[in-house]
Amino acid sequence: MSVAKMNRTFRYGIVSAVAMGAMFSFPTMAQQPNKERDASPFLASKTQCLSEEDASKLSKEYEKCTAKQFFISGSWGSASGDFKESDVQQEAAELGFDVFDIDIDDTRSAWKAVVGTNITENSFIQIGYTDLGDVSAAFSTTTNEPSRFFSETSRIRPTSVDGYTLSVAYQFLRHEDWFLHAHVGLYFWQGNYDSLDVFEDTALLQDVDDEGTDLFYGIGANWRIHDDWVATIEYERYDIDDNATDLASVGISYLF
After folding, report:
1. CA nearest neighbour of 255 among 234, 220, 225, 235
2. What one-character-per-residue DSSP string does 74-133 give?
3. pTM, whole model, 2 decimals?
4. What is the pLDDT of residues 152-173, one digit of tens each?
5. Is residue 52 within 8 Å of residue 226, measured between CB atoms?
6. Which of 42, 188, 240, 254 is least enclosed by beta carbons within 10 angstroms?
7. Nearest Cα to Cα of residue 118 among 74, 75, 71, 165
8. Could you tell me whether strands 202-226 and 107-118 are parallel, antiparallel, or unpaired per DSSP bridges?
9. pLDDT of 123
């Protein structure tokens, strides 16, 4: 009897930097004089871009703000997919194996970091990095061909990857303290997996790389908690190789 198990590890470097920046910068920004509020939009926004109406009220000259106003954000959340025991059984059966003792861990922590700038007053372009966390799948079989079993079933697993994002976003229903946004873009992802014989605690197949480019999209609600800070709740779907992964997250953005 043999057991296969696949998992993946990931790093937190980028999001840690965003978190530290937020931790040390927010008290400083909170102490700034109220006069800086005069340069902020009257309606909550993802950047400090002033509309024509804002500029008129502030007696300032209106300027298009394409690529002149920026934001950086970090988000933390929970990712989950729809990979089920029946998927493992079906894929293994197609390879000629009857599997049992199936254990799938497909809900995990995830994070992302994003930098963006205005295209127009209410539209943005964003680049970022998203890590969808760790996944694992373990299952057993009775076979006289253990080598073939481990080799051919190494790709039966939940989908979880990390990579870079490029998207466009639009904000709407703007109010003084909150607004909504929607975005769509491309996810340039890569997955690194290990295959293990858990009985022998032996690595059987290392660094099984998988990569691709797929669509992702999402919607979010945002609250202006300070002139230069916005809090966000967001839901996204990543259509990775036709195996959708959902990410629900909370985050914070700094406008500059």
Report:
1. 225
2. EEEEEEEE---HHHHHHHHHHTT--EEEEEEE-EEEEEEEEEEEESSSSEEEEEEEEE--
3. 0.75
4. 777 777 777 899 999 999 999 9
5. no
6. 42
7. 71
8. unpaired
9. 96
